[in-house]
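Q: I'm building a small set of examples for a reading group on sequence design. Run inverse folding on the following structure and report the sequence directly after it, with nothing in between.
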């Protein structure tokens, strides 16, 4: 650390924080780097003597949401001056857009509306509920496209459910995509029906940044950056509410466009990567 003139060690797991703090303690006083940890989970802090020692010896403990901070502190005490919340953001990489025509690829009509999902294909992300939504709206000219992967056995189970319900011409699993920006740009609506407490849903931010209206649940930190019917549609993780929210966007193109525009403006003003970077650097330089 001294040889390389390292001034800050930023870790994202407590096991790494222990190593960093112990290593820093071995360095002569006055030359020690700061040790900063970002907490990405919604989980109570551990209360053992060893962990309490660690909390006191970290220079800063960053949480990605108020929800993550409050849940952590419901189990432990930590010095107030060491704690801060910095919402996540997405690097402003310029995507290489490809001319992928998803409607043509899947044999859909030109005016078919595309509903996009990005994330791991796991039960707690509400993927099966999306299949139920598709079933309820099978008479609508819409298609669900899911970008992401998960456990192979679970993916096969999803494929079977889709086929058994006769939705294999309206519900498509695309697997892992390297270029999510290109995928998002082709969607009409984004959706994340998460059943668990999201620490901070980055896939929602991706849709917001692109100006695509998004529907998500109120189960986690989503209310910290989604205002219902202003910057997105925020609903309970129930089939009826998610279905009704989607119908509302599908039936009103002006409303759909306005939600997308509001979300894009909110992202640019409050969640952009430059702002995130400056907040992180302020912690580094404090």
């Amino acid at each position: 650390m001294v040889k390389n003139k390292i001034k800050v060690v930023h870790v994202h797991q407590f096991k790494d924080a222990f190593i960093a703090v112990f290593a820093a303690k071995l360095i002569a006083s006055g030359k020690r780097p700061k040790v900063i940890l970002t907490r990405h989970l919604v989980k109570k802090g551990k209360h053992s003597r060893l962990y309490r020692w660690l909390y006191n010896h970290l220079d800063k403990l960053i949480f990605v949401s108020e929800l993550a901070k409050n849940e952590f502190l419901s189990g432990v005490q930590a010095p107030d001056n060491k704690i801060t919340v910095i919402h996540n953001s997405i690097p402003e990489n310029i995507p290489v857009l490809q001319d992928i025509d998803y409607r043509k690829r899947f044999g859909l009509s030109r005016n078919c509306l595309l509903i996009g999902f990005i994330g791991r294909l796991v039960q707690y992300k509400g993927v099966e509920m999306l299949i139920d939504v598709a079933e309820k709206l099978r008479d609508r000219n819409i298609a669900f496209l899911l970008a992401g992967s998960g456990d192979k056995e679970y993916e096969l189970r999803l494929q079977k459910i889709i086929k058994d319900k006769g939705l294999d011409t309206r519900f498509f699993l695309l697997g892992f995509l390297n270029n999510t920006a290109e995928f998002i740009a082709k969607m009409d609506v984004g959706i994340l029906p998460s059943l668990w407490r999201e620490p901070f849903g980055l896939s929602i931010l991706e849709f917001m940044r692109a100006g695509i209206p998004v529907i998500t649940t109120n189960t986690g930190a989503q209310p910290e950056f989604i205002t219902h019917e202003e910057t997105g549609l925020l609903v309970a993780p129930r089939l009826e509410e998610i279905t009704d929210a989607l119908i509302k966007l599908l039936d009103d193109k002006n409303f759909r466009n306005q939600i997308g525009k509001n979300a894009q403006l909110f992202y640019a003003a409050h969640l952009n990567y430059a702002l995130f970077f400056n907040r992180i650097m302020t912690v580094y330089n404090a």
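The mean pLDDT is 93.
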